Amino acid sequence: MSVQQLLDLIKEKNIEFVDFRFVDLLGRGHHITLPATEVDADTFVNGVAFDGSSITGFRGIEESDMVMMPDPGTAYVDPFTAHATLVIVSNIHTPDGQHYERDPRSIAHKAEEFLQQSGVGTTAFFAPESEFFIFDDVRYESTMNSSSYFVDSEEAAWNTNRKEEGGNLGFKIGVKGGYVPVAPVDSQQDIRSEMVRLMQESGLRVERHHHEVATAGQAEINFRFDTLTTTADNLMKYKYIVHNVARQYGKVATFMPKPLFGDNGSGMHVHTSIFNGSEPLFYEAGAYANLSELALNYIGGILYHAPALIAITNPSTNSFRRLVPGYEAPINLVFSKGNRSAAIRIPIAAVTPKGCRIEFRTPDSTANPYLAFAAMLMAGLDGIKRKIDPRALGYGPFDTNIYELSDDQKKEIRSAPGTLDEALDALEADNDFLIEGGVFTKDFIENYVAVKRAEAKSVAIRIHPHEFGLYFDC
Protein backbone atom coordinates (compact mmCIF):
# COMPACT_ATOMS: atom_id res chain seq x y z
CA MET A 1 0.00 0.00 0.00
CA SER A 2 1.41 3.40 -0.99
CA VAL A 3 1.24 6.46 1.24
CA GLN A 4 -1.41 8.00 -1.00
CA GLN A 5 -3.51 4.84 -0.90
CA LEU A 6 -3.29 4.85 2.87
CA LEU A 7 -4.36 8.50 3.08
CA ASP A 8 -7.28 7.68 0.78
CA LEU A 9 -8.18 4.75 3.06
CA ILE A 10 -8.27 7.08 6.07
CA LYS A 11 -10.89 9.18 4.31
CA GLU A 12 -12.82 6.22 2.92
CA LYS A 13 -13.11 4.49 6.33
CA ASN A 14 -13.76 7.74 8.21
CA ILE A 15 -10.72 7.06 10.37
CA GLU A 16 -10.53 9.41 13.37
CA PHE A 17 -7.13 8.43 14.77
CA VAL A 18 -3.93 6.83 13.51
CA ASP A 19 -2.02 4.65 15.97
CA PHE A 20 1.72 4.44 15.26
CA ARG A 21 3.35 1.38 16.87
CA PHE A 22 6.81 -0.02 17.42
CA VAL A 23 8.31 -2.98 19.27
CA ASP A 24 10.87 -2.80 22.06
CA LEU A 25 13.76 -5.14 22.85
CA LEU A 26 11.52 -7.45 24.88
CA GLY A 27 8.89 -7.82 22.16
CA ARG A 28 6.32 -5.54 23.79
CA GLY A 29 4.32 -3.19 21.60
CA HIS A 30 4.19 0.58 22.21
CA HIS A 31 2.12 3.26 20.51
CA ILE A 32 1.52 6.96 20.00
CA THR A 33 -1.83 8.08 18.57
CA LEU A 34 -2.38 11.07 16.30
CA PRO A 35 -5.70 12.56 15.19
CA ALA A 36 -6.20 11.58 11.57
CA THR A 37 -6.38 15.28 10.67
CA GLU A 38 -2.71 15.58 11.69
CA VAL A 39 -1.53 12.77 9.40
CA ASP A 40 -0.42 13.63 5.88
CA ALA A 41 2.28 12.66 3.38
CA ASP A 42 4.93 14.50 5.42
CA THR A 43 4.23 12.20 8.38
CA PHE A 44 5.71 9.34 6.37
CA VAL A 45 8.79 11.39 5.52
CA ASN A 46 9.47 13.01 8.90
CA GLY A 47 8.11 10.26 11.16
CA VAL A 48 6.70 10.47 14.68
CA ALA A 49 9.05 11.44 17.51
CA PHE A 50 9.21 9.65 20.88
CA ASP A 51 11.42 9.35 23.97
CA GLY A 52 13.72 6.35 23.57
CA SER A 53 15.10 6.66 27.11
CA SER A 54 11.77 5.47 28.51
CA ILE A 55 11.93 2.18 26.56
CA THR A 56 13.74 -0.81 28.09
CA GLY A 57 17.00 -1.57 26.30
CA PHE A 58 16.98 1.50 24.07
CA ARG A 59 18.85 4.75 24.79
CA GLY A 60 20.01 6.81 27.75
CA ILE A 61 18.39 10.12 28.64
CA GLU A 62 21.26 12.05 27.06
CA GLU A 63 20.42 10.65 23.59
CA SER A 64 16.74 9.92 23.97
CA ASP A 65 15.20 11.51 20.86
CA MET A 66 14.05 8.84 18.42
CA VAL A 67 11.69 8.67 15.46
CA MET A 68 9.08 6.14 14.34
CA MET A 69 9.09 5.78 10.55
CA PRO A 70 5.69 4.32 9.57
CA ASP A 71 5.42 1.39 7.16
CA PRO A 72 2.16 2.02 5.23
CA GLY A 73 1.97 -1.62 4.12
CA THR A 74 1.24 -2.72 7.69
CA ALA A 75 -1.96 -0.71 8.18
CA TYR A 76 -5.10 -2.29 9.59
CA VAL A 77 -8.18 -1.02 11.43
CA ASP A 78 -8.02 -1.59 15.18
CA PRO A 79 -10.99 -3.85 16.06
CA PHE A 80 -11.17 -2.72 19.71
CA THR A 81 -11.21 1.08 19.83
CA ALA A 82 -14.44 3.04 20.27
CA HIS A 83 -13.20 5.63 17.79
CA ALA A 84 -12.20 4.44 14.30
CA THR A 85 -8.44 3.94 14.55
CA LEU A 86 -5.91 2.80 11.96
CA VAL A 87 -2.85 0.91 13.24
CA ILE A 88 0.50 1.33 11.44
CA VAL A 89 3.70 -0.48 12.43
CA SER A 90 6.92 1.52 12.32
CA ASN A 91 10.67 1.11 12.10
CA ILE A 92 12.83 3.18 14.42
CA HIS A 93 15.30 5.80 13.21
CA THR A 94 17.74 8.07 14.96
CA PRO A 95 17.23 11.85 14.57
CA ASP A 96 19.80 11.92 11.75
CA GLY A 97 17.64 9.53 9.69
CA GLN A 98 19.64 6.34 10.25
CA HIS A 99 18.07 2.98 11.07
CA TYR A 100 18.46 2.39 14.81
CA GLU A 101 20.70 -0.65 15.25
CA ARG A 102 18.76 -1.83 18.30
CA ASP A 103 15.39 -1.71 16.52
CA PRO A 104 14.15 -5.33 16.36
CA ARG A 105 12.14 -4.74 13.19
CA SER A 106 15.14 -3.24 11.40
CA ILE A 107 17.20 -6.29 12.41
CA ALA A 108 14.53 -8.52 10.83
CA HIS A 109 14.75 -6.49 7.61
CA LYS A 110 18.54 -6.82 7.60
CA ALA A 111 18.29 -10.60 8.01
CA GLU A 112 16.04 -10.78 4.93
CA GLU A 113 18.48 -8.61 2.97
CA PHE A 114 21.37 -10.83 4.09
CA LEU A 115 19.57 -13.89 2.74
CA GLN A 116 19.10 -12.22 -0.65
CA GLN A 117 22.76 -11.16 -0.77
CA SER A 118 23.96 -14.63 0.28
CA GLY A 119 23.04 -16.23 -3.03
CA VAL A 120 21.27 -19.08 -1.20
CA GLY A 121 17.73 -17.99 -1.97
CA THR A 122 15.40 -15.04 -2.18
CA THR A 123 12.84 -15.58 0.57
CA ALA A 124 12.57 -17.23 3.98
CA PHE A 125 9.09 -18.16 5.12
CA PHE A 126 8.06 -18.49 8.77
CA ALA A 127 4.95 -19.82 10.50
CA PRO A 128 4.80 -19.77 14.32
CA GLU A 129 2.39 -21.89 16.36
CA SER A 130 1.98 -19.62 19.37
CA GLU A 131 0.16 -21.36 22.24
CA PHE A 132 -1.50 -19.52 25.13
CA PHE A 133 -3.72 -19.94 28.17
CA ILE A 134 -7.08 -18.27 28.78
CA PHE A 135 -7.70 -17.86 32.53
CA ASP A 136 -10.64 -16.48 34.49
CA ASP A 137 -8.50 -15.03 37.27
CA VAL A 138 -4.85 -14.14 37.80
CA ARG A 139 -3.26 -12.66 40.93
CA TYR A 140 0.40 -12.31 41.90
CA GLU A 141 2.74 -10.29 44.11
CA SER A 142 6.41 -10.15 45.04
CA THR A 143 7.33 -7.96 48.01
CA MET A 144 10.01 -8.08 50.68
CA ASN A 145 7.83 -10.23 52.96
CA SER A 146 5.44 -11.93 50.55
CA SER A 147 5.57 -13.81 47.27
CA SER A 148 2.68 -15.60 45.59
CA TYR A 149 0.78 -16.23 42.40
CA PHE A 150 -2.68 -17.62 41.68
CA VAL A 151 -4.41 -18.48 38.41
CA ASP A 152 -7.82 -20.03 37.94
CA SER A 153 -10.06 -21.35 35.18
CA GLU A 154 -13.62 -22.66 35.19
CA GLU A 155 -12.53 -25.70 33.18
CA ALA A 156 -9.45 -26.53 35.29
CA ALA A 157 -8.86 -30.01 36.73
CA TRP A 158 -8.59 -28.62 40.26
CA ASN A 159 -12.14 -27.23 40.12
CA THR A 160 -14.13 -30.45 40.00
CA ASN A 161 -15.49 -29.64 43.48
CA ARG A 162 -15.81 -25.87 43.16
CA LYS A 163 -19.17 -24.42 44.30
CA GLU A 164 -18.68 -20.79 43.29
CA GLU A 165 -20.12 -21.42 39.84
CA GLY A 166 -23.61 -21.50 41.32
CA GLY A 167 -23.68 -25.23 40.85
CA ASN A 168 -20.75 -27.10 39.39
CA LEU A 169 -21.56 -28.19 35.85
CA GLY A 170 -18.73 -30.71 35.57
CA PHE A 171 -16.90 -31.47 32.32
CA LYS A 172 -13.58 -30.23 33.70
CA ILE A 173 -10.45 -30.95 31.68
CA GLY A 174 -7.99 -33.32 33.31
CA VAL A 175 -4.26 -32.74 33.51
CA LYS A 176 -2.88 -33.38 30.00
CA GLY A 177 -6.46 -34.09 28.90
CA GLY A 178 -7.18 -30.99 26.87
CA TYR A 179 -6.15 -31.91 23.34
CA VAL A 180 -9.05 -31.18 20.94
CA PRO A 181 -12.10 -32.40 22.95
CA VAL A 182 -15.53 -31.25 21.80
CA ALA A 183 -17.88 -29.09 23.86
CA PRO A 184 -18.89 -28.95 26.64
CA VAL A 185 -15.43 -30.19 27.70
CA ASP A 186 -13.92 -27.54 25.45
CA SER A 187 -15.68 -24.49 26.89
CA GLN A 188 -13.77 -21.89 24.85
CA GLN A 189 -14.86 -22.57 21.28
CA ASP A 190 -16.70 -19.26 20.95
CA ILE A 191 -13.96 -17.08 22.42
CA ARG A 192 -11.36 -18.60 20.08
CA SER A 193 -13.74 -18.22 17.12
CA GLU A 194 -14.18 -14.54 17.97
CA MET A 195 -10.40 -14.17 18.05
CA VAL A 196 -10.23 -15.80 14.62
CA ARG A 197 -12.98 -13.57 13.22
CA LEU A 198 -11.15 -10.40 14.25
CA MET A 199 -7.83 -11.76 13.02
CA GLN A 200 -9.38 -12.37 9.61
CA GLU A 201 -10.92 -8.89 9.55
CA SER A 202 -7.48 -7.49 10.39
CA GLY A 203 -5.83 -9.24 7.46
CA LEU A 204 -4.55 -12.52 8.92
CA ARG A 205 -5.23 -15.74 7.05
CA VAL A 206 -6.16 -18.16 9.85
CA GLU A 207 -5.92 -21.87 9.14
CA ARG A 208 -7.42 -23.45 12.28
CA HIS A 209 -7.93 -23.22 16.05
CA HIS A 210 -8.31 -25.77 18.84
CA HIS A 211 -7.91 -26.50 22.53
CA GLU A 212 -4.40 -27.60 23.48
CA VAL A 213 -3.15 -30.39 25.77
CA ALA A 214 -3.09 -28.67 29.16
CA THR A 215 -6.03 -28.15 31.48
CA ALA A 216 -7.29 -24.64 32.37
CA GLY A 217 -7.82 -23.13 28.94
CA GLN A 218 -4.73 -23.81 26.87
CA ALA A 219 -5.34 -22.85 23.24
CA GLU A 220 -3.73 -22.60 19.83
CA ILE A 221 -4.67 -20.62 16.72
CA ASN A 222 -2.61 -21.08 13.57
CA PHE A 223 -2.23 -18.40 10.93
CA ARG A 224 -0.70 -18.68 7.46
CA PHE A 225 3.05 -18.48 6.87
CA ASP A 226 4.63 -15.39 5.35
CA THR A 227 8.01 -13.72 4.97
CA LEU A 228 10.15 -13.10 8.05
CA THR A 229 9.30 -9.49 8.93
CA THR A 230 5.66 -9.80 7.85
CA THR A 231 5.23 -12.91 10.01
CA ALA A 232 6.69 -11.07 13.00
CA ASP A 233 4.25 -8.20 12.32
CA ASN A 234 1.43 -10.74 12.10
CA LEU A 235 2.42 -12.37 15.39
CA MET A 236 2.32 -9.01 17.15
CA LYS A 237 -1.17 -8.47 15.71
CA TYR A 238 -2.18 -12.02 16.73
CA LYS A 239 -1.11 -11.50 20.35
CA TYR A 240 -2.80 -8.09 20.49
CA ILE A 241 -6.10 -9.60 19.35
CA VAL A 242 -5.85 -12.62 21.68
CA HIS A 243 -5.17 -10.41 24.70
CA ASN A 244 -7.97 -7.98 23.97
CA VAL A 245 -10.67 -10.50 23.03
CA ALA A 246 -9.97 -12.34 26.28
CA ARG A 247 -10.39 -9.04 28.12
CA GLN A 248 -13.72 -8.42 26.37
CA TYR A 249 -14.96 -11.81 27.62
CA GLY A 250 -13.94 -10.97 31.18
CA LYS A 251 -10.98 -13.35 30.97
CA VAL A 252 -7.23 -12.96 30.63
CA ALA A 253 -4.87 -14.53 28.10
CA THR A 254 -1.18 -15.18 28.67
CA PHE A 255 1.61 -16.42 26.42
CA MET A 256 3.79 -17.16 29.45
CA PRO A 257 5.53 -20.49 28.72
CA LYS A 258 4.84 -22.19 32.07
CA PRO A 259 2.05 -20.66 34.19
CA LEU A 260 1.02 -24.09 35.60
CA PHE A 261 3.14 -26.61 37.48
CA GLY A 262 2.76 -30.24 36.39
CA ASP A 263 1.07 -29.78 33.02
CA ASN A 264 2.19 -28.85 29.52
CA GLY A 265 3.60 -25.41 28.92
CA SER A 266 3.00 -23.11 25.96
CA GLY A 267 5.53 -23.17 23.16
CA MET A 268 5.92 -21.35 19.87
CA HIS A 269 6.88 -24.03 17.36
CA VAL A 270 8.29 -22.22 14.32
CA HIS A 271 8.00 -23.69 10.82
CA THR A 272 10.46 -22.33 8.29
CA SER A 273 11.69 -22.88 4.74
CA ILE A 274 13.68 -21.08 2.04
CA PHE A 275 12.68 -20.47 -1.56
CA ASN A 276 14.60 -19.18 -4.55
CA GLY A 277 11.90 -17.34 -6.44
CA SER A 278 9.13 -19.93 -6.72
CA GLU A 279 11.48 -22.91 -6.21
CA PRO A 280 11.41 -24.60 -2.78
CA LEU A 281 14.98 -25.32 -1.64
CA PHE A 282 14.27 -27.71 1.23
CA TYR A 283 12.73 -30.52 -0.87
CA GLU A 284 14.44 -33.57 -2.40
CA ALA A 285 12.18 -36.47 -3.30
CA GLY A 286 13.22 -39.80 -1.82
CA ALA A 287 15.76 -38.42 0.64
CA TYR A 288 15.27 -38.69 4.39
CA ALA A 289 11.93 -36.95 5.09
CA ASN A 290 12.30 -35.61 1.51
CA LEU A 291 14.88 -33.11 2.77
CA SER A 292 17.52 -31.61 0.50
CA GLU A 293 21.17 -31.36 1.58
CA LEU A 294 20.67 -27.61 1.84
CA ALA A 295 17.82 -28.18 4.31
CA LEU A 296 20.00 -30.57 6.34
CA ASN A 297 22.76 -27.96 6.46
CA TYR A 298 20.19 -25.40 7.62
CA ILE A 299 19.14 -27.82 10.38
CA GLY A 300 22.80 -28.34 11.23
CA GLY A 301 23.28 -24.60 11.69
CA ILE A 302 20.31 -24.26 14.02
CA LEU A 303 21.30 -27.26 16.15
CA TYR A 304 24.99 -26.30 16.24
CA HIS A 305 24.18 -22.77 17.42
CA ALA A 306 21.13 -23.80 19.47
CA PRO A 307 22.52 -23.03 22.96
CA ALA A 308 23.21 -19.43 21.89
CA LEU A 309 20.07 -19.22 19.76
CA ILE A 310 17.90 -20.23 22.71
CA ALA A 311 18.95 -17.06 24.55
CA ILE A 312 16.90 -15.23 21.90
CA THR A 313 14.14 -17.76 21.16
CA ASN A 314 13.51 -18.59 24.85
CA PRO A 315 14.56 -15.39 26.59
CA SER A 316 12.82 -15.62 29.98
CA THR A 317 13.54 -17.41 33.23
CA ASN A 318 10.07 -18.93 32.88
CA SER A 319 11.12 -20.42 29.52
CA PHE A 320 13.25 -22.91 31.42
CA ARG A 321 10.33 -24.06 33.57
CA ARG A 322 8.94 -25.43 30.29
CA LEU A 323 12.21 -26.79 28.91
CA VAL A 324 12.36 -29.83 31.19
CA PRO A 325 11.99 -33.53 30.31
CA GLY A 326 8.61 -35.25 30.26
CA TYR A 327 6.20 -32.61 28.94
CA GLU A 328 6.79 -32.88 25.17
CA ALA A 329 9.27 -30.05 25.73
CA PRO A 330 11.91 -30.27 22.99
CA ILE A 331 15.09 -30.04 25.07
CA ASN A 332 16.95 -32.60 22.92
CA LEU A 333 19.09 -30.91 20.27
CA VAL A 334 18.43 -33.41 17.50
CA PHE A 335 16.17 -33.68 14.45
CA SER A 336 13.61 -36.26 13.42
CA LYS A 337 10.70 -36.78 11.05
CA GLY A 338 7.42 -36.53 12.90
CA ASN A 339 9.00 -36.88 16.37
CA ARG A 340 7.80 -34.27 18.85
CA SER A 341 10.50 -35.09 21.41
CA ALA A 342 13.18 -33.60 19.11
CA ALA A 343 14.12 -29.92 18.96
CA ILE A 344 13.62 -30.01 15.20
CA ARG A 345 10.77 -32.00 13.73
CA ILE A 346 10.26 -32.55 10.00
CA PRO A 347 6.51 -32.63 9.25
CA ILE A 348 5.82 -35.47 6.83
CA ALA A 349 2.02 -35.76 6.73
CA ALA A 350 0.29 -34.27 3.68
CA VAL A 351 3.40 -32.27 2.68
CA THR A 352 3.97 -31.07 -0.90
CA PRO A 353 7.36 -29.96 -2.29
CA LYS A 354 6.44 -26.34 -1.59
CA GLY A 355 5.21 -27.32 1.87
CA CYS A 356 8.46 -29.08 2.80
CA ARG A 357 9.80 -27.34 5.88
CA ILE A 358 11.41 -27.79 9.26
CA GLU A 359 9.77 -27.13 12.61
CA PHE A 360 11.95 -25.73 15.40
CA ARG A 361 9.97 -26.68 18.51
CA THR A 362 12.08 -25.15 21.27
CA PRO A 363 11.03 -21.45 21.05
CA ASP A 364 8.27 -19.84 23.12
CA SER A 365 6.28 -16.63 22.88
CA THR A 366 8.32 -14.63 25.38
CA ALA A 367 10.66 -14.22 22.39
CA ASN A 368 10.67 -11.00 20.41
CA PRO A 369 9.54 -12.46 17.04
CA TYR A 370 11.66 -10.08 14.94
CA LEU A 371 14.80 -11.13 16.81
CA ALA A 372 13.91 -14.82 17.10
CA PHE A 373 13.12 -15.32 13.40
CA ALA A 374 16.17 -13.29 12.33
CA ALA A 375 18.46 -15.29 14.64
CA MET A 376 17.02 -18.60 13.38
CA LEU A 377 17.62 -17.56 9.78
CA MET A 378 21.20 -16.48 10.52
CA ALA A 379 21.96 -19.77 12.28
CA GLY A 380 20.52 -21.78 9.40
CA LEU A 381 22.39 -19.75 6.77
CA ASP A 382 25.62 -20.27 8.69
CA GLY A 383 24.95 -23.99 8.56
CA ILE A 384 24.48 -23.76 4.78
CA LYS A 385 27.61 -21.64 4.36
CA ARG A 386 29.73 -24.06 6.41
CA LYS A 387 27.95 -27.18 5.12
CA ILE A 388 27.26 -28.37 8.65
CA ASP A 389 25.99 -31.95 8.44
CA PRO A 390 23.81 -32.68 11.49
CA ARG A 391 24.18 -36.42 10.90
CA ALA A 392 27.97 -36.24 11.17
CA LEU A 393 27.74 -34.30 14.44
CA GLY A 394 25.38 -36.80 16.06
CA TYR A 395 22.27 -34.61 15.86
CA GLY A 396 20.15 -37.37 14.37
CA PRO A 397 17.96 -38.36 12.83
CA PHE A 398 16.31 -39.83 15.92
CA ASP A 399 13.02 -41.50 15.10
CA THR A 400 12.34 -43.02 18.52
CA ASN A 401 10.87 -41.47 21.64
CA ILE A 402 13.97 -39.91 23.14
CA TYR A 403 12.45 -39.81 26.62
CA GLU A 404 12.28 -43.63 26.56
CA LEU A 405 15.99 -44.11 25.80
CA SER A 406 18.30 -45.47 28.49
CA ASP A 407 20.35 -43.05 30.59
CA ASP A 408 23.51 -44.07 28.72
CA GLN A 409 21.84 -43.40 25.37
CA LYS A 410 20.57 -40.02 26.55
CA LYS A 411 24.09 -38.98 27.52
CA GLU A 412 24.99 -38.98 23.84
CA ILE A 413 22.36 -36.33 23.08
CA ARG A 414 23.04 -32.64 23.64
CA SER A 415 20.38 -30.84 25.66
CA ALA A 416 19.15 -27.27 25.62
CA PRO A 417 20.58 -24.97 28.30
CA GLY A 418 18.94 -25.47 31.69
CA THR A 419 18.71 -21.81 32.68
CA LEU A 420 18.57 -18.39 31.08
CA ASP A 421 22.04 -17.62 32.41
CA GLU A 422 23.44 -20.73 30.69
CA ALA A 423 21.86 -19.65 27.41
CA LEU A 424 23.29 -16.14 27.80
CA ASP A 425 26.73 -17.63 28.47
CA ALA A 426 26.39 -19.52 25.19
CA LEU A 427 25.32 -16.37 23.33
CA GLU A 428 28.33 -14.45 24.64
CA ALA A 429 30.62 -17.26 23.47
CA ASP A 430 28.93 -17.84 20.10
CA ASN A 431 27.56 -14.83 18.23
CA ASP A 432 29.69 -14.41 15.11
CA PHE A 433 26.92 -16.03 13.05
CA LEU A 434 24.55 -13.27 14.17
CA ILE A 435 26.81 -10.32 13.39
CA GLU A 436 27.62 -11.63 9.91
CA GLY A 437 26.76 -8.91 7.40
CA GLY A 438 25.96 -6.46 10.21
CA VAL A 439 22.53 -8.02 10.83
CA PHE A 440 23.02 -7.96 14.58
CA THR A 441 25.79 -5.85 16.11
CA LYS A 442 28.16 -6.42 19.01
CA ASP A 443 26.55 -3.44 20.74
CA PHE A 444 23.11 -4.99 20.35
CA ILE A 445 24.22 -8.35 21.73
CA GLU A 446 26.06 -6.82 24.69
CA ASN A 447 23.04 -4.66 25.51
CA TYR A 448 20.64 -7.61 25.08
CA VAL A 449 22.70 -9.83 27.37
CA ALA A 450 22.90 -7.09 30.00
CA VAL A 451 19.11 -6.62 30.01
CA LYS A 452 18.47 -10.36 30.24
CA ARG A 453 21.14 -10.89 32.93
CA ALA A 454 19.32 -8.31 35.04
CA GLU A 455 16.05 -10.22 34.58
CA ALA A 456 17.68 -13.50 35.59
CA LYS A 457 19.28 -11.93 38.65
CA SER A 458 16.01 -10.34 39.74
CA VAL A 459 14.45 -13.82 39.88
CA ALA A 460 17.48 -15.58 41.36
CA ILE A 461 17.81 -13.31 44.42
CA ARG A 462 14.17 -13.51 45.46
CA ILE A 463 12.79 -15.97 47.99
CA HIS A 464 10.68 -18.71 46.43
CA PRO A 465 7.52 -19.84 48.30
CA HIS A 466 8.48 -23.50 47.88
CA GLU A 467 11.63 -22.83 49.90
CA PHE A 468 9.47 -22.39 53.00
CA GLY A 469 8.22 -25.97 52.63
CA LEU A 470 11.76 -27.23 52.15
CA TYR A 471 13.70 -25.26 54.73
CA PHE A 472 11.54 -23.35 57.23
CA ASP A 473 11.82 -26.08 59.88
CA CYS A 474 15.59 -26.37 59.67
Automatic annotation (TrEMBL):
Q: State where the protein is found.
A: Cytoplasm
What keywords appear on the UniProt entry? ATP-binding, Cytoplasm, Ligase, Nucleotide-binding
Q: What family is this protein classified in?
A: Belongs to the glutamine synthetase family.
**NCBIfam families recorded:** GlnA
What this protein catalyses is: L-glutamate + NH4(+) + ATP = L-glutamine + ADP + phosphate + H(+)
Note the SMART domains from the entry: Gln-synt_C (SM01230)
Q: Which residues form the GS beta-grasp domain?
A: 13-97
Keyword Transferase belongs to the record: no
Q: EC number(s) of the enzyme? A: 6.3.1.2
Query: GO molecular function, one example?
Result: glutamine synthetase activity
The name on file for this protein is Glutamine synthetase
Origin superkingdom: Bacteria
Residue span, GS catalytic domain? 104-474
